[in-house]
Specification:
By secondary structure, the protein is of the alpha+beta class. The protein has 3 helices and 4 strands. It has a 4-stranded mixed beta sheet, with helices on one face. The chain starts with a helix and ends in a 5-residue tail after the last helix.
């Protein structure tokens, strides 16, 4: 039990540290990507106004209960397509304390392939 609490505390500390350096505006919103065991959630957020511009999750894309790297890349492409429709070309990437590997990296690469700049 203690190990789980320590892991959660470390993640919370990393979230605060990363969030202190990244902020979104209306021209360059913050792309916040969070991950659970079964899903990936992504939002484009304007921190100056305190609103979410675009929000997506992996449930409609993935038919199974778990998300794969291929589905994470598709989700990134979907988010980039919606952002480009709203004339958003550049974002600040917020990985929410997670390491930039696996599904988070695949999501980012999918968004980059579709034309979004970080």
């Amino acid at each position: 039990m203690k190990e789980i609490l320590d892991k959660q505390r470390r993640l919370a500390r990393r979230k605060v540290r990363v969030r202190g350096k990244i902020s979104g505006t209306s021209t360059i919103p913050r792309l916040a990507v969070s991950k659970s065991n079964t899903s990936i959630y992504a939002q484009l957020i304007d921190d100056a106004k305190g609103i979410t511009l675009i929000g997506l999750h992996s449930k409609p894309i993935s038919k199974s209960t778990t998300i794969t790297i291929v589905n994470a890349e598709k989700l990134g492409q979907e988010l980039a397509k919606k952002a480009l429709e709203k004339n958003i070309y550049k974002v600040a990437f917020d990985r929410r304390g997670r390491k930039y590997t696996g599904k988070i990296a695949a999501f980012a690469e999918g968004a980059r392939k579709s034309g979004l700049r970080f």
